[in-house]
Amino acid sequence: MSPIATIAVSGMKAASQRLEVSASNVANAMSTGALPNADGTLPAGAPKAYDPLQLVQSDVAGGGTQATITKASQGTSASYQPSAPFANKDGLVAAPNVDLAEEMISQLVAKYSFAANAKVLKASDEMSRVVIDMKV
What we know:
Blueprint: H1 3-27, E1 53-59, E2 65-71, E3 76-80, E4 92-96, H2 100-135
Antiparallel strand pairs: 1-2, 3-4
């Protein structure tokens, strides 16, 4: 595979992973859980809130990109939901820090990034065919 194609494929893979991360965050945006105790542990039998994910892209030597999925640094925040069975005495639960507008933008970035890299891959393929036709 040509270096151009390798770079484009790595971009397409990163865009796919960005979409997967965003879809997971949106799907679990309302998945609340119990607030941790002062020592960081959860009350016995209480559910844990969803930890949002984030995608970190970094350059690869020789060209291309590598995507790494990590947990978001500020995963949850306290939210007032006194009717939740696992709410603390103040009616608070842990809610994922998922900004739906930000996730929508991330999905659009993934869409356009994938499309742009697909066009680069197609152009690389067409250039290779022209070179092969010239040799024949």
